[in-house]
Design a protein that fits this description.
The structure is a single chain. Strand 2 and strand 3 form a beta hairpin. The protein is elongated. It is mainly alpha-helical. Strands 1-3-2 form a 3-stranded antiparallel β-sheet. The protein has a domain of 54 residues. 47% of the residues lie in helices and 11% in strands. This is AlpA family phage regulatory protein.
């Protein structure tokens, strides 16, 4: 009769596999970012980011499964580099400036 294996066995083996994958990083692999990681980099809210994607102002990202979208880190960095140094929006006039 085989000894009964506890539910921990699969988790322990999986963590060892994950650790092995972390130790051996393939060269040339592009880093993938989740939505939460992108939102840590880009100082806007989720809805604003989604509107920017819809307008074509931010990279669309890639779906790696039906419900999981990722962005490549280099694409987000390229978007950042393409931003202008200054805002093109006009400055608001203050009440003092309007009265003068």
């Amino acid at each position: 009769m085989r000894p009964r294996l506890g539910p921990w066995r699969g988790k322990r083996e999986r963590s060892a596999k994950v650790q092995a994958m972390d130790e051996v990083k393939p060269t040339g692999a592009r880093r993938m970012l989740t939505l939460e990681q992108v939102l840590e980099i880009v100082p806007v809210g989720r809805n604003t980011l989604m509107r920017m994607i819809g307008r074509g102002e931010f990279p669309r990202g890639n779906f790696i499964s039906p419900n999981k979208r990722i962005w490549y880190e280099d694409a987000v960095q390229a978007w950042q580099d393409a931003l202008p140094d200054h805002s093109s929006r006009k400055k608001r006039r203050t009440k003092d400036a309007a009265n003068n």
